[in-house]
Amino acid sequence: MDFTGKIAEFIRATRFEDLPEDVIKHAQRSLVDWLGVSLGASHDPSVDMLLRVCNTLGGNPQATVIGRGSKVSLAHAALINGHMSHVLDFDDTHLDTMIHPSATIWPAALAVGEEYRLSGKAMLTAFITGYEVETRIGRSVYPDHYDAGWHITGTVGTFGSAVAVAKLLRLDRERLVQALGIAGNQAAGLREMFGTMCKPFNAGRAARDGLMAALLARAGFTGSGQILEAPKGFCNLASPKADLGKILEGLGREFEIRTNAIKPYACGVVTHPTIDGIIALRNTHGLSGHEVKAIQVQVHPLVLELTGRKEPTTGLEGKFSIYHCAAVALIDGEALPTQFTDGRVCTEDVRVARSRVTVHPDPNLAKDEAVVTVMLYNGDRLTSHIQHARGSKEHPLTDDELEKKFSAQAAGILTHERQQRLLELIWDLETEPDVGKLAILVACSPYGSF
Amino acid sequence: MDFTGKIAEFIRATRFEDLPEDVIKHAQRSLVDWLGVSLGASHDPSVDMLLRVCNTLGGNPQATVIGRGSKVSLAHAALINGHMSHVLDFDDTHLDTMIHPSATIWPAALAVGEEYRLSGKAMLTAFITGYEVETRIGRSVYPDHYDAGWHITGTVGTFGSAVAVAKLLRLDRERLVQALGIAGNQAAGLREMFGTMCKPFNAGRAARDGLMAALLARAGFTGSGQILEAPKGFCNLASPKADLGKILEGLGREFEIRTNAIKPYACGVVTHPTIDGIIALRNTHGLSGHEVKAIQVQVHPLVLELTGRKEPTTGLEGKFSIYHCAAVALIDGEALPTQFTDGRVCTEDVRVARSRVTVHPDPNLAKDEAVVTVMLYNGDRLTSHIQHARGSKEHPLTDDELEKKFSAQAAGILTHERQQRLLELIWDLETEPDVGKLAILVACSPYGSF
């Protein structure tokens, strides 16, 4: 079966007019969320480092670095903004594959949209097309690919950005096939990097390399024409159990973006049901932390594998510590970026609280499910069973909650008025002829206005 | 065992003064060869395409594009020159791992050497250090990594360029460990791309990404500190049978570069003993092709796997067709770039000759061994047994043959006088204080002289 060709045809055929209204809404929500978490991380030291290296190399001033005053080349914008969007581990997730599609697609798409002054409709269509292809390729290799140690956002994400940019550049069928091949050939990223700057870098790298794949394909560059189905193509190399049928399953009829999960907490998504459970008990019973003797958590086994760090020493490590997440949920009733600073991770109260947490893997639980039991010194046992974490498709954030998350991240970077204009522009994106306006609004030092 | 740390210490400790004379000579020979094959491919259409995309993105004019008049950013120079050096499939090979180290290391090292005006000694030391680390990491994952379908020059090559650039930038131990981690995290490339523009692109990508890893590490960027030995680090993910002991085997005492094979023919290295055998019979018996009824070739099984294309339709495919290689060896007595053009692949005489070739895999033969039997219409059977191909360490090209290969590639790009000055500069590289001079000499339109 010519999976690569079929995907190329799907990319060609997708039209804004045919997209269901709720699917477009999901894309708008992911754009709000992506810009918010990117703004929130726009002054992270790792972003400074990336910018310094990119400035050493230089480039045409084509696309805006989010939350900054400078423009860089398309490739550097995709790299830096992609990195930025994943720094806080606060960006949205396709839960069935653990892919973070926005972090790989929006940075490349927005850069190209800004440079070529494309319409909001074109952007939304390109993003949705990239999302559907990326997550389906992800489905075909998940979970083995991820379990083996590949950072699926870095590997499969390269396809998503290539698809979105290729769609924006209106490549023909043959060039689309080539763009997919060139993209898959560059897929990279290891889970070994979790808890280091290379984790968000992998999202940026995927955004940049997918963009490069589309630009190269447009220029006539060639790769394999069968990247998805070849015996030693991407899918079979990515997973010995690759199920290629999943690539086309429901394509154009069902939309993976409907399952897009927006994070209420700035840490590994598998810790979220535990945080929900503890916050629920905290609020219901007015706990402050001192009265708690022990916390027992039952979760899907992947949770310990991904976030099993008992004693994190940096904020970044705290994001991958179910113990730290449980501790701040109890003490602060929150798991926002302020709970994952290097300082907060080392304070005495959370260290003590972490030591009281025990985690029990239970394969019968879903990834977004947790049973939390809190034991008090007075002998009480309080239990909360979270079936689906907040932010999941069963329990989505409301638009209002999403806007609040956005504003909390954008505060200190953009004025309140500018935040409002951005939100208005995004909620009305399909009428916008030039997304360059959006880029102007996310630049910190305004160098233009409309 | 802290393999990554030990490698970082080796990189730090390596000094030009301690390198054996013959090892330095091997590095000089590889530089001559690398520049020659790069010049020969410097006007390939795929190079134009890459340049077009890189020019769209722009960058500071830091490093020379070989055989061209322009300077581009360090990253683009590494990418384009790395690609260029592998376009003709004519660059040198570490036969034990099938890695093409020069194509991944020299482009990054020369770009940095040019920009920072580094000495010939620094360049040679950096190249040799990168070569030794790259090929040893290759040894630890070969052959399973390659057999699975990974393009080992693209994956492992990323380490080599990172090491060379990190050495040139004089990174400290901790930053070296980070550079290795950031490099390994970016490792990519599929053998599925063989016969397409993405094959040479993988060499360029490795050169660029290793360079980026070193620049990022210098800027303070972090990755895993255990990229080589972590349970889900590069080596274990690259091969389920990874043998990490090979990474440190003989390090600093034995030199892999002593086995560096310089290609006499512009095609897949595994076809070379076959070509040798046919050319030997052709010359000994004065064959012209018309008298030949059939050619039987016995070779290592990898040969058919890598170069089993029966009916190539492009020059690029011809390089991966043992049938085409055998045909041109018989008819032309050569296997140079002119034998691998789109036109030559389609001419009637080679098509007929290809159809007379049969190939028999024999696991008892080495990769650089072949038994060739030519059957003539007059009933004669002529046989040649090649134990080691020309260019291998047992049968190396002489300096004179290497210079002839260089000049054949550089002809039409550089004047004869300039070729001579380049060769003199390289043979005397250890006395050169500024390798920028070398870069000036490989620019097609001179924009400076000394």
Describe the structure.
The structure is a homodimer. Chain A is of the alpha+beta class. Chain A has helices spanning about 5-15, 20-40, 45-55, 75-85, 100-115, 120-140, 145-150, 150-155, 155-170, 175-185, 200-220, 235-240, 245-250, 270-285, 300-305, 315-320, 320-330, 340-345, 350-355, 400-410, 415-425, 435-440, and strands at about 65, 70, 95, 260, 290-300, 355-360, 370-375, 380-385. In chain A, strands 6-5-7-8 form a 4-stranded mixed sheet. Chain A is globular. At the A-B interface, helix 3, helix 4, helix 10, helix 11 and helix 12 of A face helix 3, helix 4, helix 10, helix 11 and helix 12 of B.
Quick take:
2 copies of one chain form a homodimer. By secondary structure, chain A is an alpha+beta fold. Chain A contains 22 helices and 8 strands.
Give short descriptive properties of this protein:
homodimer; 450 residues; alpha+beta; four-stranded mixed beta sheet; two-stranded antiparallel sheet; 22 helices; 8 strands; 53% helix; disordered C terminus
Which oligomeric state applies? Answer: homodimer
Task: Look at the structure and give the mean pLDDT of chain A.
Answer: 96
User: What are the segments of chain A in which pLDDT stays under 50 over at least 5 consecutive residues?
Assistant: 446-450
Number of helices of chain A: 22
Proportion of beta-strand residues of chain A: 5-15%
**Shape, principal axes of CA atoms of chain A:** globular
Overall strand count of chain A: 8
Q: Please state the structural category of chain A.
A: alpha+beta
